[in-house]
Amino acid sequence: MSQFSSAKAAVNPSPLAGSVAKPSLTKTLFVTCIGNALEWFDIAVYGFFAAYIARAYFPTTDQTVSLLLAFGSFGVSFLIRPLGAIVLGAFADRAGRKASLLASISLMMLGSLMIVVTPSYATIGLAAPLLILLARLIQGFSAGGEFGSSTAFLVEHFPERKAYIASWQFATQGASTLLASAFGLGLAQGLSEAQIQDWGWRIPFAFGLLIGPVGLYIRRNITEAESFVKADKTASPLKTLFGKQKSLLCMAVGLMVVSTAVNYMLNYVPTYATKTLHFSSQVAFTATLLAGVILTVATPLMGLWAEKVGRLPLMWGSLILLLVTIYPGFWLMTHYTTAFSLVALVCWMALLKSVYFSAVPSMMADLFPVTTRASGMAIGYNVAVTVFGGFAPFICTLLISATGTSLAPSYYLMIVALLSLWALIKSQQTKK
Questions:
Q1: Is residue 190 predicted with pLDDT exceeding 60?
Q2: Using CA of residue 103, residue 109, residue 113, residue 116, what is the dihedral sign?
Q3: CA neighbours closer than 13 Å in the CB half-sphere of residue 207
Q4: Residue 221, CA distances (Å) to 20, 43, 248, 285, 388 in order
């Protein structure tokens, strides 16, 4: 019977002594990916509705200042992610993946609830922006531990299908962004500007909040993988990680940097295309929407391909293609500034990201033993996301200003691609 259709695979422990029941593949995917989906849905929604949030909670006489304050609270959530990775990752290695997954989704729901119910600045004054800032900190902390715990849970339950099943971690990011885009479009068409500002922008957050209890209920009924149950736990996984596995942690960060840099470069495209290349916002957002479709559909397909041909050919191929094509791609776009050139470059980056991205989670998981896997993956992932992803738009803007050329973003992508190539080489040497 297919793993995908098996209705008999148990989620609760087997009554047989000493046995550990194995859940079905589809249930395992849903259990783990729902937290990742909620994380990225909230990130996208906050970004899409930042202008409304700014006016509700950060009112000033200067709209630009209001928007900067709103994005500031958005950015703070990324700064606290490494702390969440350290705390929740270590918790997952000591107490179990299930305990950490329950904690992370509960914290996500709490943050969403605070955003949904917090009155505006006009109603409660300074308490309003402070509560929103606290909500974003809670969400950032919870997101910090989600990736490591959920990916470890996936690959430990299905080591024979780790490339495919772990690729869904990133496919859900694209799907969540598409869902957030659909909410934005639907609200813009169904409500007036005043209605969206008064209460409409809260609807997507309320939707995310409604999904949370479903994920929480299902996560309460999952079991740990046999490999984790039988592993000798360490009382201090962080001490082991930072004491004996620093090189592995550096490799994990290196493997991730190009992927997260491309991801946030795609988010930066609307600003880059409109401000630097003077495209219309409609063209810019069309490009990013198509990129989201590619990431959602292609990533799990690439995960299946990785099962057939191996992960290394896909990772090497995508990195080399990125290195040799990204500069010509930007050159063509800046010298032939048409909608087609922009869309083609963005879709090409999204496709290369899907190929590389599909293999990264399982590759990172293989770097670490079971006893430090969740900690190592969580910290490696979030350091890369915070430094090389969250600051990618800032770095690209700085490079454009410093070099005076709109080709500067391609320099950044080539640099991070070289870093990931180094990490890939080192990880191969480590396995020998």
A1: yes
A2: positive
A3: 15
A4: 13, 27, 32, 40, 36
